[in-house]
Amino acid sequence: MGERTRLRSYRPSAASVVASTLKYLSLLLAAAITILPILTILFGSIKSSAEFANSGPFDLPKDLFDFSNYAVAFTKGRMLLGFGNTIALILFSAVGTVFTGTMAAYVLDRFEFKLKKLIMGLFLLLTLIPSITTQVATFKIVTSLGLYNTMAAGIILSIGTDIVALYVYLQFLESIPRSLDESAIIDGAGYFRVYFKIIMPLLTPATVTVLIIKCIGVYNDFYTPYLYMPKQSLQVISTALFKFKGPYGARWEIICAGVMIAIIPTLIAFVALQKKIYNGLIQGAVKQ
């Protein structure tokens, strides 16, 4: 009797069952909305041109193992060159973002000066301004500096401290005791030595998070390379796909194959590093 009474006490109510069902249905719906476009691209990438034009988006291709579109996309799209330029752009942009982000966060968190609140307000204000509205001025500045059609244009535009990196570093710095800085300064260390020897090593978890977010952002960026680096030898992985779109139509089956090739590195990176992304975003938000 006691065991039956205990089981009855753990019986879920009708409201909790409905809530649980709705929760899982919403998760399944969200997963379907995310996966269906990828399946459409996958099916399209292994179809012929005629089959792509005369079949539905979710119709299975006749030959599931025809990867000729992938060969065309990789060779004629010069995607190997795109991968090389993308990696170079990511490396310089990521290193520059880490240094500008950590330095800006270090100054804003550790020093008191009159314009501190104004600068913080300007960083927040910049996030409210659509970047497209500033492109005319940005383009004129890049052109006047002689950086148009060079890799330096994409690197400099990506290095600028973004509010996400600044926020992540500020949250981590708040959890680092100021007594460490004060002890080092008493022992004769300067601000630069404190920054390089104490602050930078302790910001490693935040740096990993910022690097992952920045690298994925630069990898997926199409607008900046397309506008500021149109030279064929400077194409990145995102602009390499644009070769198959012409004034008289587009070879969508080749574009789908190129998209799948471009998705694979980011998919592998996210699956392997997703825990670090989540932990880095929330770890510094709680003060010890």
Quick summary:
By secondary structure, this protein is mainly alpha-helical.
Number of strands: 2
* Contiguous runs where pLDDT drops below 50 for at least 5 residues: 284-288
State the name of the first-level CATH class of the largest domain: Mainly Alpha
How large is the share of residues in beta strands?
A: under 5%
Write down the domain tally. Answer: 2
Proportion in helices: over 70%
The CATH architecture of the largest domain: Orthogonal Bundle
- Structural class computed from helices and strand pairing: mainly alpha
Report, as a whole number of angstroms, the end-to-end distance.
48 Å
CATH topology (level 3) name of the largest domain: MetI-like fold
Q: What series of H and E elements makes up the topology?
A: HHHHHHHHHHHHHHEEH
Specify the overall morphology.
globular
Question: What labels would you give this structure?
Answer:
73% helix; 2 domains; 15 helices; 288 residues; disordered C terminus; globular; mainly alpha; MetI-like fold; two-stranded antiparallel ribbon; 2 strands
Topology diagram in text:
Elements: H1 2-9, H2 14-45, H3 49-54, H4 68-76, H5 79-110, H6 116-128, H7 135-144, H8 151-159, H9 163-174, H10 178-186, H11 191-202, H12 204-220, H13 223-228, H14 237-240, E1 245-246, E2 249-250, H15 252-283
Antiparallel strand pairs: 1-2
Description:
This protein has 288 residues and is mainly alpha-helical. It has 2 domains: 2-66, no CATH class; 77-283, MetI-like fold (Orthogonal Bundle), CATH 1.10.3720. Helix content is 73%, strand content 1%. The protein has 15 helices and 2 strands. The protein has helices at residues 2-9, 14-45, 49-54, 68-76, 79-110, 116-128, 135-144, 151-159, 163-174, 178-186, 191-202, 204-220, 223-228, 237-240, 252-283, and strands at 245-246, 249-250. It has a two-stranded antiparallel ribbon with strand order 1-2. The longest helix is centred in the first third of the chain and has 32 residues, at 14-45. The protein is globular, with a radius of gyration of 25 Å. The protein starts with a helix and ends in a 5-residue tail after the last helix. Mean pLDDT is 82; it is low at 284-288.
